[in-house]
Amino acid sequence: MKLLVVGSGGREHALAWKLAQAPRVQLVYVAPGNGGTAQDERLANVDITDIHELADFAEREQVALTVVGPEAPLAAGIVNVFRSRGLKVFGPTKEAAQLESSKDFAKAFMKRHGIPTAAYETFSDAAAAHAYIDTHGAPIVIKADGLAAGKGVVVAMSLEEAHQAIDMMLADNRLGDAGARVVIEEFLAGEEASFIVMVDGKHVL
Q1: What angle do CA 74, 89, 10 make, to 5 degrees?
Q2: Residue range 27-80, pLDDT digits in tens
């Protein structure tokens, strides 16, 4: 069988490398791939990033399964497009991907379902955001609502730093659409840990 991995990072390289080791797998396409995937004879880079063109490619090449790595195509609805065309794809739908692509959506989801999370407010107006910061003080955390390539979170240890972050995101629009709204969160001291797990919809596998 042939598989398709969507993405261009080290994560996608690792996924493609491991998938290619399966006895039933003949070839793993990587779209668009990178210099590392280009050097592996079991992998083939495909210079396609458009979601609908990727679906066309998967149909044409009879790809058995597509695995999507990056957040951006998931947020854009690649899984929805593939499923609508009867193509097997591993990844969350556009709706579910909002947990990653929108911090406001994720915070509201946690609040709605009683999942512990830091207190927060969301703003699209710079003046209102500045006023909130003045009321709550520092340290405080400023987060761009959307995907900002790792540049959208500022842990402000002073009021000046917090106000600068608001200006950068809302007033100066330096992060584009990703920073059109900001989530302002209470500062929580402690260690951060991330867990990546497999679930079947009800249980952690």
Answers
A1: 60
A2: 999 999 999 999 999 999 999 999 999 999 999 999 999 999 999 999 999 999
186-200: b (≥16 Cβ within 10 Å) or e: eeeeeeeeeeeeeee
102 vs 104: CA distance, rounded Å? 5
Q: Is the pLDDT confidence value at 200 over 80?
A: yes
Q: What is the DSSP string of 82-139?
A: HHHTT--EES--HHHHHHHH-HHHHHHHHHHTT-----EEEES-HHHHHHHHHHH-SS
**CA pair distance 154, 150, nearest whole angstrom:** 10
pLDDT above 90 for 164: yes
Structure tokens at 60: 């044409």
Q: Characterize 49-63 residue by residue with b for buried, 16 or more Cβ atoms within 10 angstroms of its Cβ, and e for exposed.
A: eebeebbebbeeeeb
Q: Is the pLDDT of residue 205 over 80?
A: no
Residue 67's alpha-carbon distances to 28, 31, 111, 125, 133, in angstroms, are 10, 10, 30, 38, 41
Walk me through the domains of the chain, giving residue ranges and CATH numbers: 2-98 (3.40.50.20), 102-186 (3.30.1490.20)
- Six-digit token pair at 169? 């995101």
Residue reference for tokens 């990844």: 91
- Please return the burial class of 26, using the count of CB atoms within 10 Å of its CB with bins 0-12, 13-18 and 19+: exposed
